[in-house]
Amino acid sequence: MDATEGLEISQGESFIDVKSFFESAPPLKNSDSITQKVKEFIYQNSQFSGNAKSVGVVCVTSGGTTVPLEQRCVRYIDNFSSGHRGAASTEYFVKSGYAVIFVHRRGSCQPYCRYLPEDSFLEFFEVLNDSEIQVCHPHATVVKKAIKEYHSAVNGGFLLKLPFTTIFEYLQIIQVVATSLSCLGPRGMFYLAAAVSDFYVPWESMAKHKIQSAAGPLDMRLTQVPKMLRILRTDWAPSAFCVSFKLETDSEILLQKAESALRKYQMHVVVANELATYKREVIAVTLDGKISIRKQSEDADVEDQLIKLLVEKHNNYIECCGMGEIIT
Ligand code: 9Z3
């Protein structure tokens, strides 16, 4: 696929920035096989009436993108994100009947693995005899639950996992998913929890080999990553329901930045979270107002309540689109 396919109606600078980003990005490895997997997954989950398999298809993004500093990369800039939010949200979306395309950072937290013991893999198995091993007793219940839920999601065809590392891979995968998901109209959803780099080094101006310290202090100019949210809404998947996240460390500016993103990129919901409290509290910002969501108890996930709210908002959106109302 031409990387700039479907961008014709975007105007001005953002179009040029996006075009040059894709033209200069190293081509996505296995692009054809990723595209085929995505299309098949969407096709298999596209029957929404009668014996519907799923109620909709959501692309959940999770983990941080990296910005390589060298083409043969030794060093890179990273973004803060463990992938816990995306992994937990994926589980709650599947539970709510959605099929999930989980676009995640390699090595980040995975759905159904959140409760597994953090200590070494070797510590929760014991050897029974020469040919058998078993999970040690204290971990058996959580491991059994995780295996069952994971297999039910994957074997049922409700979970497709696509890994990324760099900002180049991430944005190319999002383009493939978005242009494929557009065929579902309002039934498609984006839940963009990944921490995406704001600045990058264009491939052609990047050092080919490891940068040498003998050359003295390093001066480096970073280019702004084009705002893909706008293109996603206007060109790639204009009818999909879009939820993005806004992370700030300064509570004074958080809501104002979230509201600005809502309008600027025509998001349906912007989930505002502050670094110090993001695990226990988020605020869903919409054109109708703000809803604060807090963890119900120590063991609960804030994502449980958040996904319930988003599913409700997505259903209203589908209904309104069906009645011919245009919702932005
Ligand atoms: C978030 O704000 C996520 O909630 C977290 C989740 C990254 C805080 P963890 O993976 O953390 O559970 O450890 N994601 C979006 C961050 C982001 O880069 N947002 C951009 C911005 O704030 C907009 S796309 O400007």
From TrEMBL:
| Gene3D superfamilies found in the cross-reference section | CoaB-like
Q: Which species is this record about?
A: Dendrobium thyrsiflorum (Pinecone-like raceme dendrobium)
Ranges for the DNA/pantothenate metabolism flavoprotein C-terminal domain?
Answer: 58-106, 189-279
Matches recorded under Pfam families: DFP
* GO term, biological process aspect, one: coenzyme A biosynthetic process
SUPFAM superfamilies assigned: CoaB-like (SSF102645)
Q: What's this protein's name?
A: DNA/pantothenate metabolism flavoprotein C-terminal domain-containing protein
Please state which protein family the record places this protein in: Belongs to the PPC synthetase family.
What is a GO molecular function of this protein?
catalytic activity
Query: InterPro entries from the xrefs?
Result: CoaB-like_sf, DNA/pantothenate-metab_flavo_C
